[in-house]
Amino acid sequence: MIKHALIFWITVSLAVLGLVTQFMLIGFRALTSLIIPLLLLGIVFYAYRSAKLGNGQGSGKSKTKVIPSQKTMAKVAGLRKTQSAAPGKRKTYPFQVIEGSKGKNDEQLPKYH
């Protein structure tokens, strides 16, 4: 993620540097060379924005509501009961520690853990 951000900011800084040098060399005639890229960028942004809103994400259109089945609701209710039943208590597991038959030798244990 950091690598992508670094590449993005390097690209933006190089673009700004290029614009500044064009303005210093050519002046405001450099704006005429930017008209087509700005128009293309605007069209792409508009297409992206309209496609995003067309999926029902943030648009004012009402979505069809999916009604879950009784079986699904029973599963969800069961999960909620088990999760909120005893948050402070420890769970009991069907495992237990079995002591080994070798016995422990204190001389073999490292002094520092």
From TrEMBL:
Annotated transmembrane regions: 7-25, 31-48
Keyword Transmembrane helix in annotation: yes
Keywords assigned by UniProt, alphabetized: Membrane, Transmembrane, Transmembrane helix
Biased amino acid composition, Basic and acidic residues: 101-113
Keyword Transmembrane helix: yes
Region of interest (Disordered), ranges: 78-113
Name of the featured protein: DUF2207 domain-containing protein
Organism of this sequence: Paenibacillus graminis
